[in-house]
Amino acid sequence: MAYAAVSQVAHTFLYTIVAYMVSLSTKTGPEFSNTVNEISSQYLLFATALGAVALVFTLWRADHALYRVIAFWNEAHRPPWQLDRIRKEELLRGLSSGALAALIYLIFFTAAGQLGYLGIYLTSMIGTPIFPLFFLDVASLAAILVCEEYLFRHKILRSLLAELPPSAAILLTACLQLLVRHFQFPLDLFDYVNLLLLNLALGFFFVKSGKCQRGLGFILAFLCLLHNCGGLLLWGNESPSFVLFKPDAGSSPLITGGQSGALGGSGISIILVLFALGSYLTWKRERERRQIAERQ
Questions:
Q1: DSSP assignments along 120-134, one per residue
Q2: The whole model's pTM is what?
């Protein structure tokens, strides 16, 4: 709830600053409102990222002050770039799985005529300097995803696992994240469905190893490839991209998500169901194997 509140404060500050800047021009009435919304929409991810980083940094410092730090990315005595073998393998598996999921979606639905491939060039449909916005958008999305893994898997799910069965703890954590996302961005029905599936997969990735690298690698590769490299909308947000895909004129918004982006369509649900089910079955199989070993 603190994260949801911080996001709303960040969004409010963004619109206040943009409205002040636009008020210095001669725009009035609907033109003023449209200009404020158009400019603000380009920086919503950035505002959300600032709020997420501020909250996570505060929690991290509080944990240090209370001597209750649990390693999130790496052990305290190691530099961030020197992951141990297990964490490195988890990260690489997550990155490869996320990239595979995004590429399956782009290739399959392009071949099916739902998506149109427009070329390889850095482009944007919005009148903002392209390179600064591109790198800002990549950094903002990455910061949001890293902070949310810290909050929802490393902190909340880890705490709930001490009180609830794993499946119930994962489902409750997923519902909490959906509630926060509801306040952050306008979502359609399939946004909720796909975010739930995505969170279930990330939850079972976490309980399987007790580490964040697999889930973090998966969601970073998956969403950055679709949004920042594929040019598809994410929760209604547009980003400049190197390789541009757009829904075809004859495509169904129910499949592609239309103005909500790929996560707002049913097409990506099939892929996420497979990954969520696969992560659950893998976790269940390993848990049963450990239980048999313990009984022996």
A1: EEEE-SSSS-HHHHH
A2: 0.89
